[in-house]
Amino acid sequence: MNRIPDNVTVIKHPLILRDMSIVRDVNTDTAGFRSALARIAMILAYHSLAELPLKEIRLKTPIQQAKGHKLDTDVIVVPILRAGLSLVDAIINYVPEAKVGHIGMYRDENTHEPVDYYSKLPPGVDSALVLVVDPMLATGGSADDAINFLKQKGAGNIRFTCLISAPEGLEKVSRNHPDVPIITASLDEKLNDDAFIVPGLGDAGDRYFGT
Q: Is 72 exposed, middle or buried (0-12, 13-18, 19+ CB in 10 A)?
């Protein structure tokens, strides 16, 4: 991939660079990994929730009547299990009323293709902002399948958020879903022969859950 697709935003921030070094380090223990990932997730969530539609409201301050705002859309977070769960709390911290769906996939170790095993969505995906979250965008297979599934369920406003992405995954998802913004904290070099991101951070789920 010679350029970053128009629908991709790579977040540049000094704290992300610091914390990305922590999550990449093979010597970082589970507690340190979780803590650093949570901090990165807060920055990613902030950018993923940009440009939300607002509704103007009237309110009363201790001094007088004033203009205020409230969100004019529902927000649904859909983690790709299991590693995607690590990014959910950051979004809920900003939007406590957000609903959470789940899509379960695992990667076949021989074919490197995603295998679906579970899905559960709240009502309203057809009218909500749907944030699909997964720490790793490697081949793009899981993200592509999840987005296809959500579109089949009527979702029309989808954003995908990940911690680390590979050029191969970005190209696939951007090609198949140019209408879906992708927010990532890092664009890494490539995939290796086992379809792991290089330099990457290993298996995000195993490191986050201590398995």
A: exposed
